């Protein structure tokens, strides 16, 4: 298990953390936490569409960064450090038009000062919509 002090966070807690910020405004909800992964969903609707009725690529990236950053923040001592995004990329594979998309983040590398997470976003039929990689900096709270 990768979680700080071996304590798996609850999906409800992670959802509450973003309720008054972008994740909440876009309707993101954390739905499951495993031993080495975190999963959230986001609606594909008027909040997340681009003008032509497809899931906006920026919404996919917002979901990927949210899920990866929350995962990163849960494997460090949050009394001493904060996890902040350094770089993200995304390959948009296929469109989504409605329903929900699900993002699963897994750590590829957890270091003292950086982490790398891969995020797979899939539609309700488990088809790949977006593949993203997030690099996160671990910064001491007294330096933020």
Overall outline = globular
Number of strands: 6
Helix content: 10-25%
CATH topology grouping: Thiol Ester Dehydrase, Chain A
User: Structurally, how many domains make up the residues?
Assistant: 1
Rg from Cα: 15 Å
Strand order of the largest sheet: 1-2-4-5-6-3
- Poorly predicted tracts of residues: none
How many H/I helices? 3
CATH class: Alpha Beta
**Average pLDDT taken over every residue:** 96
Helix and strand element order: HHEEHEEEE
Largest sheet: 6 strands, antiparallel
Classify the beta-strand content into a percent band: 35-45%
Looking at CATH, the homologous superfamily is Hotdog Thioesterase
**Structural class designation:** alpha+beta
Instruction: State the CATH architecture.
Output: Roll
End-to-end separation: 28 Å
